[in-house]
Protein backbone atom coordinates (compact mmCIF):
# COMPACT_ATOMS: atom_id res chain seq x y z
CA UNK A 1 0.00 0.00 0.00
CA UNK A 2 2.70 2.49 1.01
CA UNK A 3 6.35 2.54 2.11
CA UNK A 4 7.82 3.36 5.49
CA UNK A 5 9.64 6.65 4.90
CA UNK A 6 13.22 6.12 6.03
CA UNK A 7 14.46 9.50 7.22
CA UNK A 8 17.83 8.13 8.35
CA UNK A 9 19.13 6.75 5.08
CA UNK A 10 19.51 3.12 6.26
CA UNK A 11 18.49 1.02 3.29
CA UNK A 12 17.93 -2.10 5.43
CA UNK A 13 15.10 -0.35 7.25
CA UNK A 14 12.94 0.28 4.15
CA UNK A 15 10.08 -2.20 4.00
CA UNK A 16 7.27 -2.23 1.45
CA UNK A 17 3.79 -2.60 2.94
CA UNK A 18 1.08 -4.47 1.07
CA UNK A 19 1.30 -6.92 -1.77
CA UNK A 20 1.10 -4.39 -4.59
CA UNK A 21 4.58 -2.85 -4.61
CA UNK A 22 4.34 -0.88 -7.84
CA UNK A 23 6.78 1.99 -8.54
CA UNK A 24 5.51 5.51 -7.98
CA UNK A 25 4.38 7.37 -11.10
CA UNK A 26 6.73 9.91 -12.64
CA UNK A 27 6.58 13.40 -11.20
CA UNK A 28 4.22 15.73 -13.04
CA UNK A 29 4.50 19.50 -12.81
CA UNK A 30 1.34 21.38 -11.96
CA UNK A 31 0.43 25.08 -11.74
CA UNK A 32 1.50 25.31 -8.06
CA UNK A 33 5.07 24.16 -8.77
CA UNK A 34 5.98 27.66 -9.94
CA UNK A 35 5.38 28.95 -6.41
CA UNK A 36 7.13 26.17 -4.45
CA UNK A 37 10.88 25.91 -3.92
CA UNK A 38 12.41 22.78 -5.47
CA UNK A 39 13.51 19.99 -3.16
CA UNK A 40 16.62 17.86 -3.34
CA UNK A 41 15.22 14.43 -4.22
CA UNK A 42 18.57 12.74 -3.58
CA UNK A 43 18.98 14.29 -0.13
CA UNK A 44 19.81 11.77 2.62
CA UNK A 45 20.23 13.11 6.17
CA UNK A 46 23.53 12.15 7.74
CA UNK A 47 22.33 10.65 11.03
CA UNK A 48 24.05 7.64 12.63
CA UNK A 49 21.94 4.50 12.88
CA UNK A 50 21.68 4.01 16.66
CA UNK A 51 19.06 2.40 18.85
CA UNK A 52 17.88 5.87 19.88
CA UNK A 53 17.37 6.83 16.24
CA UNK A 54 15.50 3.60 15.55
CA UNK A 55 13.22 4.41 18.46
CA UNK A 56 12.74 7.92 17.04
CA UNK A 57 11.87 6.43 13.64
CA UNK A 58 9.34 4.13 15.29
CA UNK A 59 7.74 7.12 17.01
CA UNK A 60 7.60 9.01 13.70
CA UNK A 61 5.81 6.11 12.02
CA UNK A 62 3.36 5.80 14.91
CA UNK A 63 2.47 9.49 14.83
CA UNK A 64 2.07 9.47 11.05
CA UNK A 65 -0.30 6.51 11.35
CA UNK A 66 -2.22 8.24 14.15
CA UNK A 67 -2.60 11.32 11.93
CA UNK A 68 -4.12 9.17 9.17
CA UNK A 69 -6.43 7.35 11.61
CA UNK A 70 -7.69 10.43 13.49
CA UNK A 71 -8.47 12.42 10.36
CA UNK A 72 -9.92 9.57 8.26
CA UNK A 73 -7.33 10.07 5.51
CA UNK A 74 -7.13 7.16 3.04
CA UNK A 75 -3.78 5.40 3.04
CA UNK A 76 -3.26 5.84 -0.70
CA UNK A 77 -2.68 9.56 0.00
CA UNK A 78 0.82 8.49 1.15
CA UNK A 79 1.62 7.59 -2.48
CA UNK A 80 1.13 11.14 -3.76
CA UNK A 81 4.07 13.28 -4.85
CA UNK A 82 3.05 16.08 -2.49
CA UNK A 83 3.23 13.72 0.52
CA UNK A 84 6.83 12.72 -0.20
CA UNK A 85 7.77 16.28 -1.12
CA UNK A 86 6.44 17.47 2.25
CA UNK A 87 8.66 15.05 4.18
CA UNK A 88 11.74 15.79 2.08
CA UNK A 89 11.36 19.50 2.86
CA UNK A 90 10.84 18.82 6.58
CA UNK A 91 13.99 16.69 6.78
CA UNK A 92 16.06 19.29 4.91
CA UNK A 93 14.90 22.17 7.12
CA UNK A 94 17.55 24.01 9.15
CA UNK A 95 17.28 26.86 11.65
CA UNK A 96 16.88 30.27 9.97
CA UNK A 97 20.10 32.05 9.07
CA UNK A 98 18.98 35.15 10.97
CA UNK A 99 19.90 33.42 14.26
CA UNK A 100 23.52 34.29 13.53
CA UNK A 101 22.70 37.99 13.37
CA UNK A 102 20.93 38.35 16.71
CA UNK A 103 22.14 41.30 18.75
CA UNK A 104 22.39 41.09 22.55
CA UNK A 105 24.49 44.20 23.19
CA UNK A 106 22.63 47.35 24.37
CA UNK A 107 25.11 49.78 22.78
CA UNK A 108 24.85 48.14 19.36
CA UNK A 109 21.06 47.91 19.66
CA UNK A 110 20.91 51.64 20.46
CA UNK A 111 23.14 52.50 17.49
CA UNK A 112 20.97 50.44 15.15
CA UNK A 113 17.78 52.09 16.44
CA UNK A 114 19.22 55.59 16.17
CA UNK A 115 20.42 54.89 12.64
CA UNK A 116 16.96 53.73 11.55
CA UNK A 117 15.07 56.50 13.37
CA UNK A 118 17.34 59.43 12.48
CA UNK A 119 18.51 58.47 8.99
CA UNK A 120 15.77 56.28 7.52
CA UNK A 121 12.50 57.37 9.10
CA UNK A 122 13.23 60.75 10.62
CA UNK A 123 12.99 61.49 14.34
CA UNK A 124 10.05 63.87 13.90
CA UNK A 125 7.99 61.00 12.44
CA UNK A 126 8.48 58.68 15.42
CA UNK A 127 6.45 58.94 18.63
CA UNK A 128 6.84 55.49 20.11
CA UNK A 129 9.26 52.55 19.92
CA UNK A 130 7.80 49.26 21.17
CA UNK A 131 10.10 46.32 21.93
CA UNK A 132 10.34 43.14 23.98
CA UNK A 133 11.68 43.29 27.52
CA UNK A 134 15.18 41.90 27.02
CA UNK A 135 17.77 43.84 29.03
CA UNK A 136 19.57 45.19 25.94
CA UNK A 137 16.27 46.53 24.53
CA UNK A 138 15.31 48.17 27.83
CA UNK A 139 18.68 49.91 28.18
CA UNK A 140 18.76 50.99 24.53
CA UNK A 141 15.21 52.35 24.83
CA UNK A 142 16.17 54.29 27.96
CA UNK A 143 19.12 55.93 26.18
CA UNK A 144 16.95 56.71 23.18
CA UNK A 145 14.27 58.52 25.18
CA UNK A 146 16.48 60.34 27.69
CA UNK A 147 17.90 62.80 25.17
CA UNK A 148 16.82 66.35 26.04
CA UNK A 149 15.26 67.03 22.65
CA UNK A 150 13.75 63.57 22.22
CA UNK A 151 9.99 63.32 21.74
CA UNK A 152 10.14 59.54 21.50
CA UNK A 153 8.66 57.14 24.03
CA UNK A 154 10.07 53.67 24.59
CA UNK A 155 7.38 51.13 25.48
CA UNK A 156 7.74 47.50 26.41
CA UNK A 157 5.51 45.10 24.48
CA UNK A 158 2.32 44.75 26.55
CA UNK A 159 1.66 41.20 25.30
CA UNK A 160 5.17 40.15 26.31
CA UNK A 161 4.74 41.73 29.78
CA UNK A 162 1.42 39.99 30.32
CA UNK A 163 2.90 36.66 29.24
CA UNK A 164 5.70 37.18 31.77
CA UNK A 165 3.05 37.86 34.42
CA UNK A 166 1.29 34.62 33.55
CA UNK A 167 4.64 32.83 33.64
CA UNK A 168 5.20 34.03 37.21
CA UNK A 169 1.64 33.05 38.14
CA UNK A 170 2.37 29.58 36.75
CA UNK A 171 5.22 29.21 39.27
CA UNK A 172 2.87 29.60 42.24
CA UNK A 173 2.62 26.22 44.07
CA UNK A 174 -1.17 25.96 43.75
CA UNK A 175 -1.11 26.68 40.01
CA UNK A 176 1.89 24.42 39.39
CA UNK A 177 0.29 21.44 41.16
CA UNK A 178 -3.06 21.98 39.45
CA UNK A 179 -1.44 22.16 36.00
CA UNK A 180 0.54 18.99 36.79
CA UNK A 181 -2.66 17.10 37.69
CA UNK A 182 -4.42 18.42 34.57
CA UNK A 183 -1.51 17.21 32.42
CA UNK A 184 -1.73 13.72 33.93
CA UNK A 185 -5.45 13.49 33.12
CA UNK A 186 -4.95 14.80 29.58
CA UNK A 187 -1.99 12.48 28.86
CA UNK A 188 -3.86 9.44 30.18
CA UNK A 189 -6.91 10.15 28.01
CA UNK A 190 -4.99 10.86 24.80
CA UNK A 191 -2.52 8.00 25.22
CA UNK A 192 -5.26 5.34 25.32
CA UNK A 193 -7.55 5.19 22.33
CA UNK A 194 -10.43 3.43 24.08
CA UNK A 195 -10.50 6.06 26.84
CA UNK A 196 -10.22 8.81 24.22
CA UNK A 197 -13.19 7.33 22.36
CA UNK A 198 -15.27 7.28 25.57
CA UNK A 199 -14.32 10.88 26.34
CA UNK A 200 -15.21 12.09 22.83
CA UNK A 201 -18.52 10.26 23.03
CA UNK A 202 -19.32 11.94 26.36
CA UNK A 203 -18.24 15.43 25.24
CA UNK A 204 -19.86 15.12 21.78
CA UNK A 205 -16.40 15.13 20.14
CA UNK A 206 -15.25 18.28 21.91
CA UNK A 207 -11.53 17.94 22.55
CA UNK A 208 -9.45 18.86 25.57
CA UNK A 209 -7.02 21.54 24.47
CA UNK A 210 -3.59 20.08 25.16
CA UNK A 211 -1.22 21.81 27.59
CA UNK A 212 1.78 23.39 25.90
CA UNK A 213 5.00 25.08 27.00
CA UNK A 214 5.18 27.52 24.09
CA UNK A 215 3.15 30.36 25.62
CA UNK A 216 2.01 30.78 29.19
CA UNK A 217 -1.48 31.84 28.08
CA UNK A 218 -2.08 28.36 26.68
CA UNK A 219 -2.05 27.05 30.26
CA UNK A 220 -5.11 29.16 31.02
CA UNK A 221 -6.92 28.07 27.85
CA UNK A 222 -6.22 24.39 28.56
CA UNK A 223 -7.33 24.60 32.19
CA UNK A 224 -10.49 26.39 31.08
CA UNK A 225 -11.17 23.70 28.47
CA UNK A 226 -10.73 20.94 31.04
CA UNK A 227 -12.78 22.67 33.75
CA UNK A 228 -15.72 23.11 31.36
CA UNK A 229 -15.79 19.31 30.83
CA UNK A 230 -15.16 18.11 34.40
CA UNK A 231 -18.75 16.97 34.91
CA UNK A 232 -18.62 15.03 31.64
CA UNK A 233 -15.43 13.29 32.83
CA UNK A 234 -17.27 12.20 35.96
CA UNK A 235 -20.26 11.03 33.92
CA UNK A 236 -17.92 8.96 31.75
CA UNK A 237 -16.67 7.07 34.82
CA UNK A 238 -20.24 6.05 35.68
CA UNK A 239 -20.99 4.56 32.25
CA UNK A 240 -21.11 0.80 31.71
CA UNK A 241 -18.62 1.10 28.84
CA UNK A 242 -16.01 2.36 31.30
CA UNK A 243 -16.85 -0.13 34.06
CA UNK A 244 -16.69 -3.11 31.69
CA UNK A 245 -13.33 -2.05 30.25
CA UNK A 246 -9.96 -3.13 31.62
CA UNK A 247 -9.03 0.37 32.82
CA UNK A 248 -10.83 0.65 36.21
CA UNK A 249 -8.55 -2.08 37.61
CA UNK A 250 -5.24 -0.67 36.35
CA UNK A 251 -2.92 1.24 38.67
CA UNK A 252 -2.58 4.31 36.44
CA UNK A 253 -6.34 4.60 35.91
CA UNK A 254 -7.07 4.33 39.64
CA UNK A 255 -4.90 7.41 40.25
CA UNK A 256 -6.56 9.36 37.41
CA UNK A 257 -10.08 8.40 38.55
CA UNK A 258 -9.24 9.58 42.05
CA UNK A 259 -8.19 12.98 40.68
CA UNK A 260 -11.28 13.35 38.48
CA UNK A 261 -13.61 12.51 41.37
CA UNK A 262 -11.81 14.88 43.73
CA UNK A 263 -13.64 18.17 44.32
CA UNK A 264 -10.36 19.64 45.52
CA UNK A 265 -8.80 19.50 42.03
CA UNK A 266 -11.70 21.29 40.36
CA UNK A 267 -11.92 23.91 43.14
CA UNK A 268 -8.20 24.61 42.72
CA UNK A 269 -8.64 24.81 38.96
CA UNK A 270 -11.45 27.32 39.40
CA UNK A 271 -9.19 29.42 41.65
CA UNK A 272 -6.40 29.33 39.05
CA UNK A 273 -8.82 30.54 36.38
CA UNK A 274 -9.98 33.38 38.65
CA UNK A 275 -6.38 34.47 39.13
CA UNK A 276 -5.50 34.36 35.44
CA UNK A 277 -8.72 35.70 33.87
CA UNK A 278 -8.06 39.48 34.28
CA UNK A 279 -4.58 39.14 32.75
CA UNK A 280 -5.72 36.88 29.91
CA UNK A 281 -8.64 39.18 29.05
CA UNK A 282 -6.26 42.10 28.47
CA UNK A 283 -3.74 39.83 26.72
CA UNK A 284 -6.40 38.78 24.22
CA UNK A 285 -7.12 42.42 23.53
CA UNK A 286 -3.52 43.57 23.06
CA UNK A 287 -2.64 40.49 21.00
CA UNK A 288 -5.25 41.29 18.34
CA UNK A 289 -5.79 44.27 16.08
CA UNK A 290 -9.53 44.60 16.59
CA UNK A 291 -9.15 47.91 18.45
CA UNK A 292 -6.32 50.05 19.86
CA UNK A 293 -5.19 48.38 23.07
CA UNK A 294 -3.07 51.12 24.65
CA UNK A 295 -6.12 52.70 26.30
CA UNK A 296 -6.99 49.49 28.17
CA UNK A 297 -3.61 48.44 29.58
CA UNK A 298 -3.87 50.74 32.61
CA UNK A 299 -7.14 49.09 33.65
CA UNK A 300 -5.42 45.73 34.31
CA UNK A 301 -4.82 46.50 37.98
CA UNK A 302 -8.39 47.69 38.48
CA UNK A 303 -9.73 44.46 36.97
CA UNK A 304 -7.44 42.35 39.13
CA UNK A 305 -8.54 44.31 42.20
CA UNK A 306 -12.14 43.29 41.52
CA UNK A 307 -11.23 39.58 41.66
CA UNK A 308 -12.34 37.97 44.92
CA UNK A 309 -10.27 35.19 46.48
CA UNK A 310 -10.89 33.61 49.86
CA UNK A 311 -7.20 32.75 50.29
CA UNK A 312 -5.59 36.06 51.30
CA UNK A 313 -2.03 34.67 51.10
CA UNK A 314 -2.66 33.61 47.51
CA UNK A 315 -4.13 37.01 46.72
CA UNK A 316 -1.09 38.77 48.23
CA UNK A 317 1.27 36.70 46.06
CA UNK A 318 -0.80 37.53 42.99
CA UNK A 319 -0.72 41.26 43.76
CA UNK A 320 3.05 41.12 44.24
CA UNK A 321 3.54 39.49 40.83
CA UNK A 322 1.39 42.10 39.10
CA UNK A 323 3.04 45.01 40.94
CA UNK A 324 6.55 43.87 39.98
CA UNK A 325 5.78 43.89 36.25
CA UNK A 326 3.38 46.82 36.46
CA UNK A 327 5.67 49.38 38.06
CA UNK A 328 8.62 48.47 35.85
CA UNK A 329 7.02 47.94 32.45
CA UNK A 330 3.36 48.94 32.16
CA UNK A 331 2.99 52.09 34.26
CA UNK A 332 4.13 54.62 31.66
CA UNK A 333 2.90 58.17 30.92
CA UNK A 334 1.44 57.06 27.58
CA UNK A 335 -0.63 54.39 29.33
CA UNK A 336 -1.92 57.00 31.79
CA UNK A 337 -2.78 59.45 29.00
CA UNK A 338 -4.51 56.79 26.91
CA UNK A 339 -6.53 55.66 29.95
CA UNK A 340 -7.60 59.25 30.69
CA UNK A 341 -8.59 59.92 27.07
CA UNK A 342 -10.49 56.63 26.63
CA UNK A 343 -14.20 57.60 26.56
CA UNK A 344 -15.27 54.00 27.21
CA UNK A 345 -13.53 54.19 30.59
CA UNK A 346 -13.99 57.87 31.43
CA UNK A 347 -17.73 57.96 30.73
CA UNK A 348 -18.53 54.44 31.95
CA UNK A 349 -20.24 56.01 34.98
CA UNK A 350 -20.22 59.18 37.04
CA UNK A 351 -18.04 57.44 39.61
CA UNK A 352 -15.43 56.39 37.05
CA UNK A 353 -14.87 59.93 35.76
CA UNK A 354 -14.59 61.23 39.34
CA UNK A 355 -12.05 58.50 40.20
CA UNK A 356 -9.94 59.28 37.13
CA UNK A 357 -9.93 63.01 37.86
CA UNK A 358 -8.92 62.29 41.46
CA UNK A 359 -6.06 59.99 40.44
CA UNK A 360 -2.91 62.13 40.58
CA UNK A 361 -0.78 59.51 38.81
CA UNK A 362 -3.05 59.45 35.75
CA UNK A 363 -3.19 63.25 35.58
CA UNK A 364 0.59 63.48 35.97
CA UNK A 365 1.16 61.00 33.12
CA UNK A 366 -1.22 62.94 30.86
CA UNK A 367 0.57 66.25 31.55
CA UNK A 368 3.99 64.65 30.96
CA UNK A 369 2.85 63.44 27.53
CA UNK A 370 1.46 66.85 26.58
CA UNK A 371 4.68 68.55 27.70
CA UNK A 372 6.96 66.11 25.87
CA UNK A 373 5.02 66.07 22.61
CA UNK A 374 4.29 69.82 22.52
TrEMBL record:
Residues 103-185 form the DUF659 domain. Pfam families: DUF659. Residues 1-29 are annotated as: Disordered. Signal peptide: none annotated. This is DUF659 domain-containing protein. It comes from Aquilegia coerulea (Rocky mountain columbine).
